[in-house]
Amino acid sequence: MRVLVFGKQFKEKDHLQAQEVFDALQSEGIEISVFEPYLHDIEHRLKLPAGCEAFYGYEQFSTQTIDVVMVLGGDGTMLAATTLVRGSGVPMLGINLGRLGFLASIEKCHIRQSVHLLAKGQYTIQDRSMIYLESHPHIFGDLPFALNDCTLLKRDTSSMITIHAFLNGDFLTTYWADGIIIATPTGSTGYSLSCGGPIIFPNSGNFIITPVAPHNLNLRPLVLSDESVISFEIEGRSDNFICSLDSRFELVGNHHQLAVRKNDFTTRLIQLQDTSFLNTIRAKLGWGEDVRN
Predict the structure, then answer these.
(1) Residue 174 pLDDT more than 80?
(2) What average pLDDT score do residues 52-60 get?
(3) pLDDT at 32
(4) Is 118 exposed, middle or buried (0-12, 13-18, 19+ CB in 10 A)?
(5) Complete domains list, the chain, with CATH
(6) Is the pTM of this model over 0.85?
(7) Quick check: 72 and 46 in contact, CB under 8 A?
């Protein structure tokens, strides 16, 4: 087995956990590749096993066999890893060095146990649906997809914007708001949740449209089939608005034609034998805990 270790930026507070990851991989006899920018960041700070190879980009998946991408960081790092993995089909496992950790669900205290289960093949793979953004003029280059959500938002302190939404070509409604969020089931526990959207289970086959600070108060989050195509027209006093895909964003104007649909490929996440989505949301959201005493 060969594991590709991916990280965005090494933080000194994570030194012990990062070292433990490499020590555990070596002790299980797993071959290691490291995403080159992260390797450059850690090679003089950690004791790396002999034979670690640099991994330079998406194209290398076709020339080097990678069985698993192990992501060191929080959910933001997991989202960044999707832009490297893309449609290669290589599954990802997240070690949570951040805060909440819905996607990077393996906690620091379980690193060695998790690597052992991975080496023994005691895991399942879950396909997570994604969003694809169609735009004219084209934006986001060759990465017009998102695992969590696509958002349309006002800029800075400008006044609210008007978003006309269409469902499969038919007029849906008009939002007067700071913006809207179109989330996948995976993204339902992110920005959408903080704006009052529902939690959707990963295999539900849905999109969620959640308004951000809507002025028309009778509009509430909508749950739609992910076989739908949702298109938008944006108006506002400002000349530019923000369109984001996960943590990436571009400026768009009212001349842009925008639509979202289900992406052609999925993100594949590893679930170890003793973890599940239910366990994760119960633990992260504190469900069933009595905090009165």
Answers:
(1) yes
(2) 95
(3) 97
(4) buried
(5) 2-128+266-285 (3.40.50.10330), 131-262 (2.60.200.30)
(6) yes
(7) no
Residue 169 pLDDT > 90: yes
What pLDDT is stored for residue 250 in this prediction?
96
Question: What average pLDDT does range 81-88 have in this prediction?
Answer: 96
CA 134 vs CA 4, 129, 224, 258: distances in Å: 31, 16, 18, 6
Distance CA 126, CA 129 (A): 10
Active-site residue, from 14, 75, 149, 226: 75
DSSP 183-230: E-TGGGGTHHHHTTPPP--TTS-EEEEEEES-SSTT---EEEETT--E
Residue with tokens 């949702």: 230
CA angle, 160 then 240 then 236, to 5°:
35
- What is the mean predicted confidence (pLDDT) over 13-40? 96
To which residue do tokens 């194209």 refer? 59
Nearest alpha carbon to residue 269 among 99, 139, 148: 148
Q: Is 75 a catalytic residue?
A: yes
Task: Provide CB contacts within 8 A for 81, sequence distance 6+.
Answer: 6, 69, 71, 92
